[in-house]
Every structure is written in C-alpha cells, then in structure tokens.
C-alpha cells in the first residue's frame, strides 16, 4: 500500500500555477497551506482589526507568492526523487530477475537463443537503471527537495512571526525587515549548488 500511495506522478510542474489573488480558489489554497485568509473571519469583521488586516495584506503581497514558489518546487523535486527511486528499485529487481533467469537457462542444453536474449535483456535493463542513477546523482532532486522545503518552512515561520509581531518583526520598520528576509531566503535557493 505504501508503494502504491507513494507512486510518483508523471508530471508536477516546477513553477506554481496559482489562482489569481483574491479569488475563492486562492483563499482555498491559503487555507490548505495553513495560512490565514479573510474567509477565516466570516463571523467577525476584519475591519475591526486593521493591524491584522494590514499584516495579511503585507504577507500576501511579499511573502506568500515566494512561499508558493518554494512549496511547488519542493513538491516537484520530491516527486522527481521518488520517480528515480522507483526506477532504481524496479530496475534492480528486474536486473536480478533476468540475471537469475539467464543463469537458470545455462542448465538447459538447447536454450542458446533464449540465453542470449535473457543476457542482453539483463545488460540493457542494468544499463538503463545505471543511466537513471547517474541522472539522479547529477540532478540531485533529494538535495533540492530538502532545500526548497526548508526554505518554504522558513517562510511559513516568518509568516506567523510577522502576524504575532515577534522578533525581528516587533519594530516600526517591520515591513522592511519582512521584505529583506524574504529576499534573503529567496537568494539562498541556489547557494552551494
């Protein structure tokens, strides 16, 4: 069941396909990610809380788009990593099976062509598996997955710290600090690659 549930999707885009800001689909995506949106304030008037309303506007303008970008990249690289792992595991099993089958065929006296086909199949499957293993090492999807997930979670932490006016967002120039922090986090995406 785990392997079926974790089967990679054939295509997850790197760049996020976000609904337009202010639409119900956009607010549904915000809630899905655990962020606060005006839909959460149905029973209260958000106008009674101008500081919170302004904070949410600032966050939606500067932080949320970058969070969605890193979140989408993280999902893409996680899927790519899982795809390479599936190919590697399947290839290793098939190489083992065909290798054992080839060895078994050697015990037959009249299996000449079948031995050659099984041997070539074993070599071909192992070559394809090795190719995808090298591709996985070159693209480093696990490293990119963990990096983009960590950066997305740093942005999530900054989101809540900004709303709660915690350090470093407890000063009058907190919007400038938010912008600088988002830019700093975004610039770390390609460090050490």
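^ Assign residues to that structure.
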């Amino acid at each position: 069941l785990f392997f079926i549930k974790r089967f990679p999707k054939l295509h997850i885009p790197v760049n996020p396909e976000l609904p337009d800001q202010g639409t119900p689909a956009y607010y549904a995506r915000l809630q899905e990610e655990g962020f606060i949106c005006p839909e959460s304030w149905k029973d209260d008037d958000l106008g009674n809380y101008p500081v919170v309303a302004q904070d949410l506007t600032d966050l939606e303008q500067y932080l949320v788009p970058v969070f969605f970008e890193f979140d989408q990249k993280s999902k893409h690289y996680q899927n790519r990593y899982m795809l390479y792992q599936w190919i590697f595991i399947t290839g290793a099993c098939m190489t083992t099976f065909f290798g054992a089958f080839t060895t078994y065929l050697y015990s037959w006296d009249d299996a000449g062509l079948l031995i050659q086909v099984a041997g070539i199949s074993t070599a071909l499957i192992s070559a394809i598996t090795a190719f995808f293993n090298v591709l996985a090492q070159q693209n480093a999807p696990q490293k990119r997955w963990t990096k983009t997930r960590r950066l997305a979670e740093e942005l999530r932490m900054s989101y809540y710290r900004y709303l709660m006016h915690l350090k470093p967002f407890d000063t009058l120039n907190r919007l400038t600090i938010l912008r600088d922090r988002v830019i700093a986090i975004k610039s770390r995406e390609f460090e050490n690659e």
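The helical segments are 2-5, 24-32, 50-62, 64-105, 112-139, 141-164, 174-187.
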